[in-house]
Backbone:
């Protein structure tokens, strides 16, 4: 049986005069997801859902997502406000039916475990001992089922100094936790606004690009800036006994884009 998870990130939805660009980018990316055949089993957006954490921005996001027909799960990033995310999306399928921004969703053939790496007032991330313990327990509940662990901040350096200075502070502790769970198929992250893959804790770290603007490859330091480069998302696919990851073009693709209507 084929399993597929579409992985988007960093849409930075905003409200007001500048809302059109990010909203159109996310809508087109989700339309591209729907046009895949077969459609993915689930979709995850790994953080920086909105740009400033304001209630009106989450209202725009909820309107975009309204009626989307596939299971779609949200991760908070450093631009997000977890309290507002809980107020707007708590108890819905977007948070796996939970009231918290860390939660696990037990799909029939895989488990999606979502962590909250947001640190108030900081662009860097941290999980902390309590959440790492929760993560360990969540992964232990279905040891024979593939799991995908989702968070916003990459748990290791990506070679861009500006971004590496605001990564996950306890990435080594996360790696130690994951090594006890060999069925973790992928660790999914965002934050970087670029496609990046790396080996991590016996599995593969996959960082999705932004649904809107990409960061420059500033490997020698300085600000990476944010560029109007082509957009895409990742598709994590179980092919036989192995997992593979495809990059699916969105903004410069001639492929079909589907639409959906709200409830």
Residues:
């Amino acid at each position: 049986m084929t399993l597929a998870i579409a992985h988007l990130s960093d849409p930075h939805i905003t409200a007001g005069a500048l809302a059109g660009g990010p909203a159109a980018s996310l809508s087109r990316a989700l339309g591209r997801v729907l046009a895949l055949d077969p459609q993915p089993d689930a979709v995850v957006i790994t953080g920086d859902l909105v740009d400033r954490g304001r209630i009106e921005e989450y209202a725009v996001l909820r309107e975009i997502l309204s009626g989307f027909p596939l299971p779609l799960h949200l991760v908070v990033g450093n631009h997000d406000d977890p309290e507002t995310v809980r107020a707007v999306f708590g108890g819905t399928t977007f948070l796996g039916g939970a009231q918290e921004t860390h939660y696990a969703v037990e799909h029939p053939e895989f488990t999606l475990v979502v962590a909250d790496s947001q640190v108030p007032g900081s662009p860097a991330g941290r999980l902390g001992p309590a959440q790492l313990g929760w993560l360990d327990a969540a992964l232990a509940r279905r040891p024979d089922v593939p799991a995908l662990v989702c968070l916003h901040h990459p748990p290791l350096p990506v070679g861009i100094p500006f971004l590496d200075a605001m990564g996950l502070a306890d990435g080594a502790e996360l790696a130690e936790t994951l090594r006890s769970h060999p069925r973790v198929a992928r660790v999914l992250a965002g934050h970087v606004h670029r496609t990046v893959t790396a080996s991590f804790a016996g599995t593969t770290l996959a960082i999705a690009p932004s649904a809107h603007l990409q960061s420059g490859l500033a490997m020698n330091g300085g600000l990476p800036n944010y560029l109007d480069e082509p957009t895409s998302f990742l598709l994590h696919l179980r092919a036989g006994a192995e997992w593979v990851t495809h990059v699916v073009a969105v903004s410069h693709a001639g492929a079909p884009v589907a639409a959906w209507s709200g409830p």
